[in-house]
Amino acid sequence: LYREKSRVIFRYLIKIGCPKEDAEDIVQTTFSKAFEHMIHLNVDNPSAWLFRVSINNYYDLCRKQKRYPHAQIDESFFENMYQMGEDGEQIVLKKEHKNEIETVLNQLSPTQSNLLLLKYELDLSYEEISVLLNMKVDTIRTTLYRSRNTFKQKWSEFVERQS
């Protein structure tokens, strides 16, 4: 379970703005507590439970440190472009585009931005997201549809303000 889920949880924590060191600590703490208390817990879906506990631990950390979570897009994407020979101007333009997308994502509700990140950044299926968030697949589909529409609207407004 640890090998299978720890990486996905870690990547998600990074995506929602958790610093790498904190994400590592949160994943480690979550799994150690889970293994410690697994006998006493009656959890139908351990993956969803671990995911939820990790996110709650991150939000607790944010409250303690008076930080606010924000969406992030993976920087390694841009590093890979550089290694593949893209010129500097294209890389700068793509980084600017990434920052613009993050700006718009951060205007959405946490639920909306989280669902969009899970679906399009982590490339999870509706079923996987359903399991992780302990929500019905139809609810995920509907909320993602609305989230995409809200993103499109906010994106249009953002582009209009920029021109």
From TrEMBL:
Top-level taxonomic group: Bacteria
| UniProt record similarity statement | Belongs to the sigma-70 factor family. ECF subfamily.
Protein species of origin: Sporosarcina newyorkensis 2681
An individual GO BP term: DNA-templated transcription initiation
What residue stretches are annotated with the RNA polymerase sigma-70 region domain? Answer: 1-67
Stretches assigned to the RNA polymerase sigma factor 70 region 4 type domain = 99-148
Q: Does the keyword Transferase apply?
A: no
Q: Could you tell me what this protein is called?
A: ECF family DNA-directed RNA polymerase sigma subunit SigM
Q: Name one GO molecular function term.
A: DNA binding
GO cellular component terms, A-Z? DNA-directed RNA polymerase complex
Q: Which NCBIfam families match?
A: sigma70-ECF
- Matching Pfam families, A to Z? Sigma70_r2, Sigma70_r4_2
Q: Name the gene that codes for it.
A: sigM
Task: Give the matching InterPro entries.
Answer: RNA_pol_sigma-70-like (IPR039425), RNA_pol_sigma-70_dom (IPR014284), RNA_pol_sigma70_r2 (IPR007627), RNA_pol_sigma70_r4_t2 (IPR013249), RNA_pol_sigma_r2 (IPR013325), RNA_pol_sigma_r3/r4-like (IPR013324), WH-like_DNA-bd_sf (IPR036388)
What keywords are assigned to this protein? DNA-directed RNA polymerase, Sigma factor, Transcription, Transcription regulation
